[in-house]
Amino acid sequence: LLINNAGSLVSGERLGNLQADIMRSAFQTNVIGPVLLTQALAPALAAQGGWVVNLSSELGSISRRSGFFTPTYCASKAALNMWTRLLDFALAGQQVRCIALHPGWVQTDMGGDDAPLDPATSVASMISLIDQLGPEQAGAFLSFDGQTLEW
Q: Which of 51, 69, 97, 122 is the most exposed place for a label (fewest CB within 10 A)?
């Protein structure tokens, strides 16, 4: 089991003040790091089979976007979702499957105090979900509560 848990969010981005260095940094953390780590560990994962769980976000759902907010975070998590599908295809023959998993809106430094979920509830729900993963979830975008999310 490999859990790629990386997230970088910069608030206050608006069209007109986007900065390439901030965008590159977010994509490095949210996309490139998890993909390259999965690539590096693929032989070890293939030796015993298992799962790659990329912690994503519902904010990475293209079909659910309704406004221009946290654009770099949203775009990078959408890219991670695509990479999750691609890696699932690439690793399936080695008995390694991948999912993108939304942890919920959680009371963390990133999620803030208004978030409805405490970290313990989110983590317990994700552990339960991961323990029950089967072939039918391979390549899916799931929420911590087991719901399938729209790409």
A: 69
Report yes or no on 123 lying in a domain.
Answer: yes
Predicted confidence (pLDDT) at residue 30 exceeds the cutoff of 90: yes
**Domain limits for position 134:** 2-143
For 52-81, letters b (16+ CB in 10 Å) and e give bbbbbbbbbbeeeeeeeebbbbbbbbbbbb
Structural domain contains residue 148:
no
Kindly state whether residue 139 falls inside one of the protein's structural domains.
yes
What number of residues does the chain have?
151
Q: Contact at 8 Å (CB) between 76 and 30?
A: yes
Q: Which residue has the tokens 């405490």?
A: 118
Average pLDDT over residues 135-145: 97
73, 83, 141, 144: which one is catalytic? 73
Residue 151 has pLDDT above 90, yes or no: yes
- CATH label of the domain that carries residue 50: 3.40.50.720
Annotation marks residue 68 as catalytic:
no
| Count of domains for the chain | 1
Work out the average pLDDT over 70-79: 97
Please check whether residue 133 lies inside any domain of the structure.
Answer: yes
